[in-house]
Amino acid sequence: MSGNRLDGKIVIITGGASGIGAESVRLFTEHGARVVIVDVQDGLGQNLAASIGEDKASYYHCDVTNETEVQKAVKFTVDKHGKLDVLFSNAGVIEPFASILDLNLDELDRIFSVNLRGAAAFIKHAARAMVEKGTRGSIVCTTSVAAEISGTAPHGYTASKHGLLGLIKSASGGLGQYGIRVNGVAPFGVATPLVCNGFKIEANVVEENTLASANLKGIVLKARHVAEAALFLVSDESAYVSGQNLAVDGGYSVVKLLI
């Protein structure tokens, strides 16, 4: 693998100020990309961009649930860099566990507006920019093992990620004619701020639970592992991969342990 797998590529990473997004910003810029960090966490996003250097990373405030702001974020990127090669749609939210009997529909709407509608808006406007510039781009969305199976995450989050996977497959069919690839990256439980704050649980507990549940032993899942999988999917090394959902789950979704 080359050391500059994204050399010259212009990238948007949503939810890029923390967690998997922040790790991806660092990794992608290490491989030659110039990244626009999209988030609503202004302090974190601005500090991250400053730590990397404004020649490699910049921050743009954007609420993914607002299509006008999404369109402006894409325009900012194209105006600044002249094109858009990669979208990593990573922004997401999660709700606490609750019985389906107590499902909060207002909370469900919020989950869908970020995890599914927000991703759809960015795919729409990023793809438009790619088509307009004739870019054979790559779009990757953070899904989850919850996009393939149930029982690992709250109901709203699970439903939104199933919907997102359907959108990825559908979009890959619609955008293939333009040479644009669309894929998903599906992590198991990662000790990100999203998970730890959403479930009010310490990072070490998340990691211990994931390690105990996964089939693959001897390694603790980190945000960096997910970023590395996303790097493969956005790079030219996956030039003929589209419509797929790459699991980063230590075999959890396909291998059930005998207890």
From TrEMBL:
<dbReference type="InterPro" id="IPR002347">
    <property type="entry name" value="SDR_fam"/>
</dbReference>
<comment type="similarity">
    <text>Belongs to the short-chain dehydrogenases/reductases (SDR) family.</text>
</comment>
<dbReference type="InterPro" id="IPR036291">
    <property type="entry name" value="NAD(P)-bd_dom_sf"/>
</dbReference>
<protein>
    <submittedName>
        <fullName>Short-chain dehydrogenase reductase 3b-like</fullName>
    </submittedName>
</protein>
<dbReference type="Pfam" id="PF13561">
    <property type="entry name" value="adh_short_C2"/>
</dbReference>
